[in-house]
Design brief:
The complex is a heterotrimer of chains A (279), B (267) and C (290). Chain A is of the alpha/beta class and 279 residues long. Chain A has helices at 46-53, 76-82, 99-109, 114-127, 143-155, 173-190, 224-228, 231-236, 243-253, 265-278; strands at residues 4-13, 23-31, 35-39, 61-66, 69-70, 83-86, 161-165, 193-198, 209-214, 217-222. In chain B, helix 2 (22-35) packs antiparallel against helix 5. Classes of the chains: A alpha/beta (279), B mainly alpha (267), C alpha/beta (290).
C-alpha cells in the first residue's frame, strides 16, 4: 500500500461570499510516487486545486493534508518545500535575470548555501537539457525552454510532488512534446509524484489515474483507458476525444470487434494486426 | 522577433573592463566625474583623455558602436562649444564675423567644456556597455548595504530593480504587439494633429497596464509558491569578488589622479 | 483581393550586429476567396509574413501585392488606412487589445477609425456580436467582466466590424480549451463560407490545417518549405519530419498501418467513417476493387 501524499477532505472553495462555489465538496487522495492527471474544461475548477495544494488559496470548508500536515497559514512554508509548481505563463514565473539566477531563486529563498546551489543548478539544468543556456537571458528563450527552466527550479528544491498547472497550454506542439517528455522521464527517475492539470486528453495517456473535473466537482476518477471509452460524455463536458478513440468508435460501427479500448495508435494497430491475420 | 533595444546597450564580451567588479567600475567612475573638473591645462586634459580612450579600447566594444550611441550627445557638446564661443569675452580677438568677435578665451573654454562633457558621457556609457544591468544592480545593492542598519530596504529595492530589468524586453515586445494590433484597427500613431496622437495612446496604454498588472499578480504568486518570504535568511547565488584585476584598476586610476594633480597648473 | 508575394525578403535590424533575415525570398499567390493555412515553427517567419499583409511592415526586398495595393521597400501605398480596412488581422491573444469601457464601444473602435458613420456602426455591432455567438445584452457590459473565451470573441468581433475582405488569423485558438477551440474555428469557417472572406490562418495545428484549409503553405527558417493541398503536403511525412513538423494523426496512423499490416490505405482526406470502412475491408480481406 502506497503512502498518502495529498488528501482533500470535503473541500469547498469560492473567491468571495457573493460568487458561486468554484469547488464543491471535493474529496480525493493522491499517493506517493503516483502520476495523476486532472482534466477539465476552462473554468471547471481544476487550476484552483493546484493553488489550494500549495496554500496560495485556502478552502472555506473542508481540509487539505499534505504528507499528513494540514495546510494552513502556519504550515505553508513547510508545505511549499514539498510541493513544486509550474504555472501556465512561461514569462510570468521567470524571476531571474538569467537561467541560472532563476533556478537559484527558490534555493536562495530557502537559505541553501551557495556551493550547494551551484551543484544543484548544474544537475537540474542537465536533467531538463538546458545546461547550454545557464547564462542566457529569459527573452532569448522559447516558451518551452522557459518552462523547462521552471521545472529545473522546482527540482532544485527536491519536492515530493510536482504540479504542472496547464504548463503546456501556451506552448507550440514541439514545446509541448519536449515538456511532456522531460516530465515523464523525471517522474520515473526520481520517484516524484506528478500532477498534471490540463484540458488536453493527449497529455493524460501516460497517467496512472485521471480525475475529470466538471463544474467544481469530480465527474469521474478512472484510468485513462476507461476515460477514453466515454467519448460522448467527454464531448458533453467540453473535452476533446483523441484520434485513436474516435477511430476505435468508427471501427465498432463497421463491426470490427476490438478486445479493449486502445490508448494509442500502437495498441490499435496490434489489434488490427491480430484481426487481419485471423482472416 | 529579436529585441532591438538592449537596455543600457550592454555589449557582451570578456575584456578586462568587462571582468572588473561592478563596484570597482562604479567607484572609479564616481571619482572620475569629480576629477574631470580639476584638469586645467592641455597636459592634464590629455591625461584624462588618454585614460578614457585606453579604457574604451581595452573594452573591445566597437568604436563605431560607441560613437553611434553618443550621437544625441554630440549635439549638446557642439551647442556648449558654440555658446562659449559667443559668450566668453576673454583673451585676444581671434577673428571677426560681422558684428561678432570671437576671443581666444572663448575658444579654449569651449574646447575645455566640450572635452569634459565628452569624457563624462564616454566613461559612464562604458559602464553600461560593459556591465549587465543585473551586475550594476548587484554592485549598487552591495554598496548600499550599510544603509540596512537604518531600516533602508536595500534587498527589496535591488530585487525590484532586477525584476524590472528582467521584464523590460517582455514589455517592449508587448508594446510592439499591441500597437500593431491597434494600428490594424485603424489607429494612426505617427501622423495627424498632436491632440489626435495623444488620444491614440489610450488604446495602447490601457491594455499595457492591464497586462502589466496581470503579470505582476501572477509573478507574485509564482514567487510565493517558490518560497519567497522577503530578504531575511536568504542566501545569494550571485557574489561579487574583488580580484587582482580590480586592485590593478584602482592602482591605475590612483596613478592617473596623481599625474593629473602633478601636471595641472596651480595658482 | 488576390494576394501575391514576389521574392519577398525581410531583414530585421539591418547593418547591426543583430541583423537577421526573418523572411527570405518568399513567393506565393493566394487567390481571392480561398482558405489558406500557414504552418511553421515559432521563428519560421510567420508573424513577419502576416505583418506584410496589411502594411505594418514593408518588405526589405521584393514586392507584395494585395489587390491593387503594392508594397515594396521604396514604395508604401498612400492610402494605407484603406488597405487596413480591407485586410483585418486577428492577432494572437487578441483579447489583449481590448481597452474600452463597454463591449459596444470596443467593437465600434475600428470602424470609427476608418470613418464609418454611427448608424452603420450600430448595425454592424449587432451583426458581428451575433456572428461571434455572443448575446446582444452583453454590449453595454465591460469587456473585462467576461471569461477568457468570451473576451476573445469580443476582440474578434472588433475586427469583423471593420468588414474586411481578407481575414488574417494568427493562432486564433491558442490557450482555449478544446470546446472553445472548435467553436472559434467553426465560426471562422462559417464566415469564410457565408461571406466569402479570404481567410489566412496561421497555426501550429496540423489537424486544423487539414480540416479547414484548401491550400497549405509551410515555412521553415523564413523560406517556403512546401505548398499545396492537404493531400499534397501531408503525404510527404518524411520531408515534414526533417524540419520537425508533425503530420496529422490520421496520416501518421496510415503510415504505421502500412508498416504493421503490410497493406496501404492511401490518404485522401477521408472522413472517419470512410477510414473505418477502408480499414475493415483491408483487415477482413474484402477486395476493394470488386
Amino acid at each position: 500500500m502506497r503512502r498518502e501524499l495529498i488528501e482533500f477532505r470535503n473541500v469547498s472553495f469560492r473567491y468571495d461570499e457573493q460568487s458561486p462555489w468554484v469547488l464543491k465538496d471535493l474529496s480525493f487522495t493522491i499517493y506517493e510516487g503516483e502520476f495523476v492527471a486532472i482534466i477539465g474544461h476552462n473554468g471547471s475548477g481544476k487550476s484552483t486545486i493546484a493553488k489550494l495544494v500549495n496554500g496560495l488559496l485556502f478552502p472555506q470548508e473542508g481540509e487539505i493534508l499534505i504528507n499528513g500536515i494540514i495546510v494552513n497559514e502556519e504550515t505553508i512554508w513547510d508545505i511549499r518545500r514539498e510541493v513544486g509548481m509550474v504555472f501556465q505563463n512561461p514569462d510570468n514565473q521567470f524571476v531571474g535575470a538569467t537561467v541560472q539566477d532563476d533556478v537559484a531563486f527558490g534555493m536562495e529563498n530557502r537559505g541553501i548555501p551557495r556551493e550547494e546551489m551551484v551543484k544543484r543548478i548544474e544537475e537540474t539544468l542537465q536533467a531538463v537539457q538546458m545546461s547550454d543556456y545557464r547564462l542566457t537571458e529569459p527573452h532569448r528563450l522559447s516558451g518551452g525552454q522557459k518552462q523547462r527552466v521552471a521545472i529545473a527550479s522546482v527540482l532544485a528544491i527536491s519536492p515530493k510532488v510536482l504540479i504542472l498547472d496547464e504548463a503546456t497550454a501556451m506552448l507550440d506542439p514541439k514545446g509541448r512534446k519536449e515538456i511532456m517528455g522531460t516530465v515523464s522521464e523525471l517522474s520515473e527517475q526520481r520517484g516524484l509524484s506528478l500532477i498534471t492539470i490540463t484540458h488536453d486528453l493527449a497529455e493524460v495517456v501516460q497517467a496512472e489515474r485521471v480525475i475529470v473535473m466538471n463544474q467544481g466537482e469530480i465527474w469521474e476518477e478512472a484510468t485513462p483507458r476507461e476515460i477514453f471509452s466515454k467519448r460522448n460524455e467527454l464531448r458533453d463536458i467540453g473535452l476533446d476525444v483523441p484520434f485513436v478513440a474516435i477511430l476505435a468508435e468508427g471501427l465498432k460501427q463497421v463491426d470490427l470487434k476490438l478486445t479493449k479500448e486502445p490508448l494509442n495508435q500502437e495498441e490499435l494497430l496490434e489489434e488490427l494486426w491480430i484481426l487481419h491475420s485471423k482472416t | 522577433m529579436n529585441n532591438s533595444l538592449i537596455i543600457g546597450q550592454y555589449v557582451p564580451g570578456n575584456s578586462l573592463i568587462h571582468r572588473l567588479d561592478p563596484r570597482t567600475k562604479i567607484t572609479i567612475i564616481f571619482f572620475f566625474v569629480f576629477i574631470v573638473f580639476f584638469a586645467n591645462n592641455v597636459l592634464s586634459y590629455g591625461i584624462l583623455v588618454a585614460f578614457a580612450l585606453t579604457a574604451m579600447l581595452t573594452s573591445k566594444v566597437p568604436v563605431r558602436f560607441i560613437m553611434k550611441g553618443l550621437t544625441p550627445v554630440w549635439f549638446l557638446i557642439i551647442f556648449t562649444f558654440i555658446l562659449h564661443l559667443f559668450v566668453t569675452k576673454e583673451g585676444t580677438v581671434v577673428f571677426e564675423l560681422g558684428i561678432f568677435k570671437f576671443y581666444s578665451g572663448g575658444i579654449i573654454q569651449g574646447f575645455a567644456i566640450s572635452i569634459r562633457f565628452f569624457l563624462l558621457i564616454l566613461v559612464t556609457s562604458l559602464l553600461t556597455l560593459t556591465t549587465t544591468p543585473i551586475e550594476i544592480t548587484d554592485g549598487i545593492e552591495d554598496m548600499l548595504h550599510p544603509l540596512k542598519r537604518f531600516k533602508f530596504p536595500v534587498h527589496e529595492l535591488a530585487l525590484m530593480m532586477s525584476i524590472s530589468l528582467r521584464f523590460i524586453p517582455t514589455l517592449m515586445q508587448e508594446t510592439d504587439k499591441i500597437s500593431k494590433a491597434q494600428a490594424s484597427r485603424g489607429v494612426d500613431f505617427r501622423t495627424g494633429p498632436l491632440k489626435e496622437r495623444v488620444k491614440a495612446v489610450v488604446p495602447l496604454l490601457v491594455p499595457l497596464f492591464i497586462s502589466a498588472f496581470k503579470r505582476a499578480e501572477e509573478l507574485a504568486m509564482a514567487m510565493e509558491a517558490r518560497g519567497y518570504q522577503g530578504g531575511d535568511n536568504r542566501t545569494k547565488l550571485r557574489e561579487l569578488k574583488v580580484t587582482k584585476l580590480d586592485i590593478m584598476g584602482y592602482l591605475i586610476f590612483i596613478l592617473v589622479v596623481a599625474i593629473l594633480f602633478l601636471t595641472r597648473t596651480y595658482g | 483581393m488576390d494576394i501575391t508575394f514576389k521574392n519577398v525578403t525581410y531583414i530585421y535590424q539591418r547593418n547591426s550586429p543583430f541583423e537577421h533575415k526573418a523572411v527570405d525570398g518568399l513567393s506565393f499567390h493566394i487567390p481571392s476567396g480561398s482558405f489558406v493555412a500557414i504552418i511553421g515553427h515559432t521563428g519560421s517567419g510567420k508573424s513577419t509574413l502576416i505583418q506584410h499583409l496589411n502594411g505594418l511592415t514593408a518588405p526589405s526586398e521584393g514586392e507584395v501585392h494585395i489587390g491593387d495595393f503594392k508594397l515594396t521597400n521604396e514604395e508604401k501605398p498612400k492610402n494605407m488606412k484603406e488597405l487596413r480596412s480591407r485586410v483585418g488581422v486577428v492577432f494572437q491573444y487578441p483579447e489583449h487589445q481590448l481597452f474600452e469601457e463597454t463591449i459596444a464601444k470596443d467593437i465600434a473602435f475600428g470602424p470609427e477609425n476608418f470613418g464609418v458613420d454611427q448608424k452603420e456602426i450600430e448595425r454592424r455591432t449587432k451583426e458581428v456580436i451575433r456572428q461571434v455567438h455572443l448575446p446582444e445584452e452583453l454590449l453595454d457590459r465591460s469587456p473585462f467582466d467576461l471569461s477568457g473565451g468570451q473576451k476573445r470573441r469580443v476582440a474578434i468581433a472588433g475586427v469583423l466590424a471593420i468588414q474586411p475582405e481578407v481575414l488574417v488569423l494568427d493562432e486564433p485558438t491558442a490557450g482555449l480549451d478544446p470546446r472553445g477551440q472548435k467553436e472559434i474555428m467553426d465560426m471562422f469557417y462559417e464566415l469564410h463560407q457565408q461571406e466569402g472572406l479570404t481567410t489566412i490562418l496561421v497555426t501550429h495545428s496540423m489537424e486544423d490545417a487539414l480540416k479547414y484549409a484548401d491550400h497549405i503553405l509551410i515555412l521553415n527558417k523564413g523560406k517556403k518549405f512546401m505548398e499545396g493541398t492537404a493531400v499534397d503536403v501531408f503525404s510527404q511525412r518524411e520531408a515534414l519530419q526533417s524540419v520537425q513538423l508533425d503530420v496529422p494523426e490520421v496520416v501518421e496512423f496510415l503510415i504505421k498501418f502500412e508498416k504493421k499490416i503490410g497493406k496501404q490505405i492511401p490518404f485522401h482526406n477521408q472522413s472517419m467513417k470512410e477510414l473505418a470502412e477502408e480499414i475493415r475491408q483491408v483487415v477482413k480481406g474484402v477486395d476493394e476493387h470488386e
